[in-house]
């Protein structure tokens, strides 16, 4: 089995070197880029299994690199952001990034995040696992495909896993901390990433995302998936 390849994009040589050493020590092959254009070229030359992407890059910025990578295919992206870049961090998640780590960060934590994202992106569910169906929404875990009204949805790795989890546990309310642990595999981290992914998921599966009827907000608790035969009609 080949080792997973990670593309690390950061204009700070010291950060690139530290991240490279920790990832290689964890068994990953690593490619490096110090600006956006080089990152896109490296991506196209040797398609990585995951990209670690700094948002603050010279030339083509990190958000634009993230957007272009998502256009090329479903390669997981873990963003590196500065503490004060919350709006950019949210926008990066909305562009399809799978996770983020705030600078200054622990290299060990970054490796854990990379491993978690890769594990979920590459794990194959049992062949016997049946599709999850709720009315016109059909999610096939084995094929990693989801359709609504016969049209395939473009879901990121996290969005797919989040929806699959909710469909497997209908009518039960989960807190953001529970979703973070069950879907992301973390028992720590910024819970706002759950909020952003939930909003993105609603935009893709709800008729009216501002008045969702599939994924309900349970005030003071978190979120609940309501199957078709349990929804309120208005």
Automatic annotation (TrEMBL):
Location of 4-aspartylphosphate modifications: 54
Cross-referenced SUPFAM superfamilies: CheY-like
Ranges of the DNA-binding region feature: 128-227
Domain of life according to the entry: Bacteria
Pfam families per record: Response_reg, Trans_reg_C
Location of the OmpR/PhoB-type domain: 128-227
InterPro entries xref list: CheY-like_superfamily, OmpR/PhoB-type_DNA-bd, Sig_transdc_resp-reg_receiver, WalR-like, WH-like_DNA-bd_sf
Domain Response regulatory: 5-118
Keywords: DNA-binding, Phosphoprotein, Transcription, Transcription regulation
PANTHER family listed in its UniProt record: DNA-BINDING DUAL TRANSCRIPTIONAL REGULATOR OMPR, REGULATOR OF RPOS
Name by which UniProt lists this protein: Response regulator transcription factor
Lineage of the species this protein comes from: Bacteria, Bacillati, Actinomycetota, Actinomycetes, Pseudonocardiales
């Amino acid at each position: 089995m080949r080792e997973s390849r990670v593309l690390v994009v950061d204009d700070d040589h010291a950060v690139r070197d530290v991240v490279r050493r920790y990832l290689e020590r964890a068994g990953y092959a690593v490619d490096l880029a110090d600006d956006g254009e080089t990152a896109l070229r490296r991506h196209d030359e040797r398609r990585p299994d995951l990209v670690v992407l700094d948002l603050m890059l010279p030339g083509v910025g990190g958000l634009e690199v993230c957007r272009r990578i998502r256009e090329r295919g479903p390669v997981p992206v873990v963003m590196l952001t500065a503490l004060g870049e919350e709006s950019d961090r949210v926008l990066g998640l909305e562009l399809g990034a799978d996770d983020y780590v705030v600078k200054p960060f622990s290299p060990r934590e970054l490796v854990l995040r990379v491993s978690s994202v890769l594990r979920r992106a590459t794990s194959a569910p049992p062949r016997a696992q049946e599709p999850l169906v709720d009315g016109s929404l059909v999610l096939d875990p084995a094929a990693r495909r989801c359709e609504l009204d016969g049209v395939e949805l473009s879901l990121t790795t996290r969005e797919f896993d989040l929806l699959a989890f909710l469909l497997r546990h209908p009518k039960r309310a989960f807190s953001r901390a529970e979703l973070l642990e069950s879907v992301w595999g973390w028992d720590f981290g910024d819970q706002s990433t759950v909020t952003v992914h939930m909003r993105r998921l609603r935009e893709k599966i709800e008729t009216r995302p501002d008045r969702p009827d599939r994924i309900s907000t349970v005030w003071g608790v978190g979120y609940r998936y309501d199957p078709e035969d349990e929804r309120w009609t208005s």
